[in-house]
Each structure stands twice: as structure tokens, then as C-alpha cells.
Write a structure and sequence with these properties.
Length: about 325
């Protein structure tokens, strides 16, 4: 449509009110991603981190012999990319010319834009689990930026394996070995299968990159609301729901169920260590702008923000019934 001119008539007071209306609308909206992910402020186009891997256990020193020397090695390099998000909406000249009407319009628009922004973030971060088990990986895990950064792990996470991976395509630690898996395939949520997942999480996968043990346990059971009644019965019943002898329910309150409407697999369930290794990068809060379109004398208003993703550790996730493509 041609060039536009900046709207000098967007009063600063009205702009400030727009931000106020936006945040007042945003705060009460339920957000699951911030329960699951560590929300971390970012100040760059992308983030990069590399950990140092320890040298493992102490080695017995024979009498009159020198101690054996071991050197730390570099861990995996992890990249996270911030993504730009936004949209533009039209406002008629007639609406703009009536400042009182414009104020009311903007005030009515902010709750919708707040909801849209939260829903965008919820959808994006839920997709970590929706796409995390894709055998070929998914582009959301690729931190590459054209002309700036080439992510060597491509569409997979830092160790070039999908976030959720079955036995046979294991996560290989820097210390070597056969590695570890955190995808249980087609297993429905049952008492026995939940115990299997718990043991995999806490007993098998509790290894650092140097092979030494760490204390780690899930605190969230993440699932679609479609599994609510099955899960609530399993972990909230005072008695074991799978027996008739009123045995103690050993799974009672073992984790906290979190039901996420943005998970696309109705039967997928995932044990998660909250805010461990899953990072929601927050680069730029919503920014509003308004300008005039000369040809029509109408106006456009935009919302723009930036946020992204960084996977620093796969060990905080064990999943079943996940999609692979």
C-alpha cells in the first residue's frame, strides 16, 4: 500500500494507559509454562552456555605412590534462540478521531491482546513436549540464526538427540558409555508404569555428564486434561485404587499433577523436574506502536515481543505415549 508515516498523535498518556491495561489483563491469566520452565531474562539475540564436566570419584592412592591426575573436560555447548512475535491490527480514521472512543477501544483491546500473547507463549512452550519426541527432531529446537549462528545439533537438542528419546537412541554423556533414554514409548498411565517412569527418572538417569550420581526427582506429572480423572485417582486416593484390600497408596502425592490444555496428545504423560534444564528465555516485553496509513487515513496498531527457548539438560524429563512424528 506504500509508505506510512509515524503517528505523532498517539498521546504518550494513552500509550502508557495501553501498557497498564495490558498488564492488568495479563496478570490474572493462568500460565502453565512458568510452572514448568525456568523463566530467564535474556539480553541478546541468542544465549550460549558450556559447562565444565568434573573428573568423577576420587582414586585410591597406594602408599608411596603419586596421586593419579585427571583433568576436567568441557561439557556440551548449549544454544538458545530468541524469536520475534507480533501482529498488526487496523483502526479506522473515524475511530481514531474520537479520542474518547479510541481510549475505550484500546482499553477493550488490551485484554484480548494479553490473552493472545499468553496463549502464544503457552502454545510455544507446550510444543516442547508435543514435538520433543519427534525422531527427526523439530525446528523449534534449532537455535540457528541465518548469518549469525549455526547450531551444530540442528533440530535436536545439544547432544544431537531428541529431547525425549527411546532406548537405542540414547543421550550419551560426556564421560561416554551406552548412555540413557527418557522415552518410554507406548505406555499408558498406570500404577506400574508410573513406578517404572519414576525409577527411570530417579535411579537410572540420575547421572551427571561425568557419570557421577546426583539426587533428582520429578515434582510434576504433566498431562492433557483428558487424563485428569485417571491421574487424580492414581495419586490422590488415600488407598491403593488398584486393589480391594485398602492397601496404602504408595503413589499418593508423589508428584503434583499439572493439566495443560495446549498438549496435543490426549494420552501423553510426562514426569518433570520443574525449572530444571528447560529454560524460557524472555528477551523483550510487549511493545505497542501506532501509525497512520496515508492512502486511507486509517491507522494501524501493533504488538511486538521476543521470547525463546533453551534446553540445558534432558534429565528433568521422562515421558510416555509421546508423538514421534
Amino acid at each position: 500500500m506504500g509508505a506510512t508515516t509515524t503517528l505523532s498523535g498517539f498521546p504518550e498518556a494513552l500509550k502508557k494507559d495501553s501498557y497498564k491495561w495490558y498488564w492488568e489483563s495479563s496478570d490474572p491469566l493462568p500460565k502453565v509454562y512458568s510452572e514448568v520452565f525456568e523463566v530467564r531474562k535474556s539480553n541478546a539475540l541468542y544465549e550460549k552456555s558450556t559447562s565444565a564436566v568434573g573428573t568423577g570419584l576420587l582414586i585410591e592412592k597406594p602408599e608411596n605412590k603419586a596421586m593419579e591426575e585427571k583433568s576436567p573436560i568441557e561439557g556440551y555447548t548449549v544454544y538458545g534462540r530468541n524469536i520475534a512475535w507480533g501482529k498488526i491490527e487496523h483502526i479506522s480514521k473515524e475511530l481514531h478521531d474520537d479520542t474518547q472512543k479510541l481510549a475505550k477501544f484500546l482499553e477493550s483491546q488490551m485484554p484480548m491482546w494479553s490473552k493472545d500473547a499468553v496463549e502464544t507463549m503457552e502454545t510455544f512452550y507446550a510444543n516442547v513436549f508435543n514435538y520433543g519426541g519427534y525422531t527427526a527432531g523439530h525446528s523449534m529446537f534449532n537455535a540457528s540464526i541465518s548469518g549469525v549462528l549455526d547450531d551444530p545439533s540442528g533440530d535436536k537438542i545439544y547432544d544431537s538427540v531428541p529431547l525425549i528419546t527411546p532406548t537405542g537412541t540414547n543421550h550419551i554423556p560426556k564421560s561416554g558409555g551406552t548412555g540413557y533414554y527418557n522415552g518410554l514409548g507406548a505406555l499408558n498411565i498406570t500404577k506400574d508404569n508410573l513406578q517404572t517412569a519414576w525409577n527411570l527418572f530417579t535411579v537410572t538417569n540420575n547421572r551427571k555428564e561425568d557419570g557421577s550420581r546426583m539426587s533428582i526427582a520429578p515434582d510434576i506429572l504433566l498431562a492433557s486434561p483428558a487424563l485428569k480423572f485417571t491421574i487424580d485417582e492414581l495419586i490422590n486416593s488415600p488407598d491403593d485404587p488398584t486393589t480391594s484390600n485398602r492397601a496404602i497408596n504408595v503413589l499418593k502425592n508423589i508428584v503434583r499433577p499439572v493439566y495443560w490444555h495446549y498438549l496435543t496428545d490426549a494420552d501423553q504423560w510426562t514426569l518433570v523436574k520443574a525449572k530444571f534444564g528447560l529454560v524460557a528465555l524472555m528477551r523483550e516485553n510487549p511493545e505497542f506502536d501506532m501509525w497512520e496509513v496515508k492512502e486511507t487515513k486509517n491507522y494501524k496498531m501493533s504488538i511486538f515481543m521476543r521470547f525463546g527457548l533453551m534446553i540445558e539438560n534432558w534429565r528433568g524429563v521422562v515421558s510416555a505415549n509421546y508423538a514421534t512424528s
